[in-house]
Amino acid sequence: DPTFVNKHDAVEPAPDPHKVRPLTADDFKIAIGIERFRCPEVLFQPGMIGVDQAGIDEMVSISLRRLLEDESVKERLCQSILVTGGSSLFPGMIPRLESGIRQFRPYLAPLKLVRAADPILDAWRGAAAFAASSKFGKQTFTLADYREHGESLFHRYNIVYTL
């Protein structure tokens, strides 16, 4: 190639000393606008990012509706819904989730959400304790079992009553 110039032969122009300035604290600042509020809102409105599914509040309500026909069990569960995981640490997450669930519950129905003591690790600790218990082998099933039997598998294993 007649226009090829070897890197070692090429002379790079030195930067103009007048255009280079020292970095300041302003150079390392990131301006956060509404993103701070939109990120957690995706949990409630997945459609914001093009995901066609229910939000977390609606999923809880659907789970409660499908849970049992026995209203006394639903009422008892609704009086102590445990919210765990790192997302529960978002400011205002618990009140926002509670107001979303209330929209799907009967008027003035009791509802209480409780944040786990250690939201990041409590779910893992609970799963580890369950895996070590004698109930684990009796109340677990494979994905193939679930695909074959569907939701009725939960009732057959009586998982709801052992929570």
From TrEMBL:
Q: Where in the cell is it found?
A: Nucleus
Name this polypeptide is given: Actin-related protein 5
InterPro entries attached here? Answer: Actin, ATPase_NBD
Question: What's the short name of a Pfam family annotated to this entry?
Answer: Actin
Question: Looking at the UniProt record for this protein, which Gene Ontology cellular component terms does it annotate, in alphabetical order?
Answer: nucleus
Q: Which organism is it from?
A: Aegilops tauschii subsp. strangulata
Q: Which domain of life is it from?
A: Eukaryota
Q: Which SUPFAM superfamilies match?
A: Actin-like ATPase domain
Q: Which UniProt keywords apply?
A: Nucleus
